[in-house]
Design brief:
190 residues; mainly alpha; Rna Polymerase Sigma Factor, Chain: A; Arc Repressor Mutant, subunit A; 67% helix; 0% strand; disordered N terminus
Amino acid sequence: MNQKDSKHTLDPNKWIDTYADYLFNYAVVRVNNNDIAKDLVQETFFAGLKSAKNFEGKSTERTWLVSILKRKIIDYYRKINSKKGQAEVRMNFYDNGDNEGNWIEERVPQSWNNEAEKTIENNELKSQIDDCIEALPEKYAMVFRMKTIQEFETEEICKELDITPSNLWVIIHRARTQLRNCMEKNWFNK
């Protein structure tokens, strides 16, 4: 049997022990709330059980569960967005798109002498970035996480949240501007 012919199988009895921590960590980074992340993982396992008969074995069990979890996360954000109402603002972000997503990475120090200091500094930086994202208006934080952290495609975000690409880029631009100001005030100038 060659690689192409091998099929993956499901073993739901091992999902919690094998995948719960991974899926929880995946979810919590994307929704930034432990309780919601736990609920999403539970919903993922439940949906996996309900649709196990549709599993074709073309991917690993974990990949299949992550794809279910991604849909649960999108559904979660869609529910939040529908409650908040939608204001359309039309404006382009960067004309050429070259600067997209680079401002935080450009400011991270590139050389470190001490591994322990690096770990502490990275944890503090991550904590400050999380605090700054938390301080954003809810819709800005949601769109920023989906585009920048979760790496959803623009088209997918627009479809799921029922916004235009120009509105998405305005939100991303405003979120990045507020994040940059927050980071400059609370991290780079401390």
